[in-house]
Design brief:
There is one protein chain. The protein has 473 residues and is an alpha/beta fold. It is built from twelve helices and 20 strands. Helix 3 (198-208) crosses helix 5 and helix 9 packs across helix 12. The protein is globular, with a radius of gyration of 22 Å.
Length: 473
């Protein structure tokens, strides 16, 4: 892959807190192809507040790109078929929550949304770009900050709130952030994702920069390379952050770049999403390829794979899964537990295969702990630093206790919050206090939970507090 530094010598923005993880069992940069699956699915896991209106039923035949699901509260947010074939099954969870629309593959017919020459993309205009993204079901790839929901569609105002609907969201996208980096452990390398897709990536940047009212940012980390094709895209500002987690988080990028005014939102995407959008505009069809990777001590093939979007987890693994194994879709810190028969969502790009650690170490309190992964200085390993790699396990290494005000969560928070104070305000349901201590700046990175010696689920409690604020308006 031909790559160059976009702006050599750019000084990286230092991130307060955060951490650069060095863990064992990470995927190698080797990339292989997975066999074509028999079924794939649209699985809306990770899409907050989705109220699905089905546009298909079991037994229907669909083409790739056909409308299959519509958001009840906002018909402009649509979801399309990731493959052509027959609707085999529509899976529902509790309270009729849509879990998956399973498609049995047959042929490769694709709906044509119209293609464009590369040189014509810059002149399309915001309205045409938004219209095509909505029609092709790709608008949901733009995630809004600070709401952590699908970005509001420009020019569309949701219905007035009542007891059956969510409150209106701002309809102004002030800025857009493209994360061309991956600092969370065991996620696909951006270099591997971009390999062979440089032109699609550049085309995606060309159309996306027309959406925000303000700037479009391409975010990398220090020491990283970016595709040479992107250097031809003007009007995109590069930002370089310190190479540690969670540099790819849109909330962190906004925090170190600008201050949004009330009523403004920022939208964020990953490099793979930009490639999909570029493919849509250049080829006129919905792209099916996705770069995945497998990591964790239980994975047989710890490497990258090219596969179909919406794969079943078992089709990606291509191995038997023992009962004492935990499967995580996504990164180690932000991923969600899934089963082998579940399907990967449009936001999933990795699966972690982790052996459940249920055994207690004999006399572990008198051991030196040279192999223990700790960000505290309670173990000698906390003093080592350097490039030593550590095991990562599913063990909590202790039981839940009361907060001891150790301030370790403050040390790692990338947005300079005091999670030990924020979580208490969230736990009490005090909305005014939560807003005073800056709960809106929480990026849900999970670092505070990871380092907490009292094993408190800080991230989940704070997330529940933000949900309460949203519900109460």
């Amino acid at each position: 892959m031909s790559v160059v530094r976009w702006e050599t010598g750019m000084e990286a923005i230092r991130i307060q807190g955060g951490h650069r993880f060095r863990l064992k069992h990470r995927p190698s940069s080797e990339c292989a192809n997975r066999e074509a699956p028999k079924t794939v699915a649209f699985a809306p896991r990770g899409i907050e507040g989705l109220k699905a209106r089905m546009k298909v039923k079991e037994g229907d035949t669909v083409k790739r790109g056909d409308l299959i699901v519509e958001h009840k509260r906002n018909p402009n947010i649509t979801f399309t078929a990731p493959a052509s074939g027959t609707i085999k099954e529509i899976q529902y969870g509790p309270r009729r929550r849509l879990d998956a629309v399973v498609i049995e593959l047959a042929g490769d017919d694709a709906k044509d949304f119209g293609s464009h020459e590369r040189g014509a993309l810059a002149g399309l205009g915001r309205e045409k770009v938004v219209e095509k993204l909505i029609e092709a079901g790709l608008w949901h790839r733009l995630m809004a900050y600070p709401s952590n929901e699908i970005a509001p569609v420009p020019g569309y105002q949701p219905p007035a709130p009542d007891e059956h609907s969510e409150p209106p969201v701002p309809d102004v996208i002030q800025s857009l952030y493209v994360s061309a980096c991956a600092t969370e452990p065991h996620l696909p390398s951006v270099e591997v994702v971009l390999q062979g897709n440089e032109e699609f990536f550049a085309a995606g940047l060309e159309v996306l920069k027309q959406i925000p009212l303000g700037k479009t940012y391409l975010v990398t980390v220090d020491g990283q390379k970016v595709p040479s094709a992107a250097s031809s895209v003007t009007g995109v500002t590069q930002k370089q952050l310190q190479n540690k987690y969670p540099a790819e988080n849109t909330g962190v990028q906004v925090y170190y770049t600008e201050r949004l005014k009330k009523g403004q939102v920022a939208a964020g995407l990953k490099a793979e999403d930009v490639i999909d959008i570029g493919h849509l505009f250049l080829e006129g069809t919905v792209r099916t390829e996705r770069t995945y990777c497998l990591g964790g001590d239980g994975a047989n093939d710890k490497k990258h794979f090219k596969g179909h979007i919406g794969l079943k987890v078992s089709d990606l693994l291509s191995q038997d899964v023992a009962e004492d194994t935990r499967l995580i879709a996504g990164g180690i810190l932000t991923g969600l537990t899934v089963g082998a028969d579940d399907y990967l969502s449009p936001y999933d790009s990795a699966v972690q295969v982790m052996k459940e650690d249920r055994e207690r170490t004999l006399l572990h309190f008198v051991r030196l702990g040279m192999e223990a992964f700790s960000l505290h200085r309670l173990w000698p390993s906390g003093l080592l630093g350097g490039d030593k790699e550590y095991e990562v396990t599913t063990s909590n290494n202790g039981e839940h206790r009361a907060c001891i005000q150790c301030a370790k969560c403050i040390d790692v928070c990338p947005t300079d919050l005091m999670p030990n104070i924020v979580f208490k305000a969230a736990l009490s349901g005090d909305i005014e206090k939560m807003e005073q201590v800056g709960v809106i700046d929480c990026t849900d990175c999970g670092l505070c939970t990871f380092v907490c010696p009292s094993k408190i689920e800080l991230t989940q409690i704070i997330s529940d507090g933000k949900a309460l604020i949203k519900k109460e308006g």
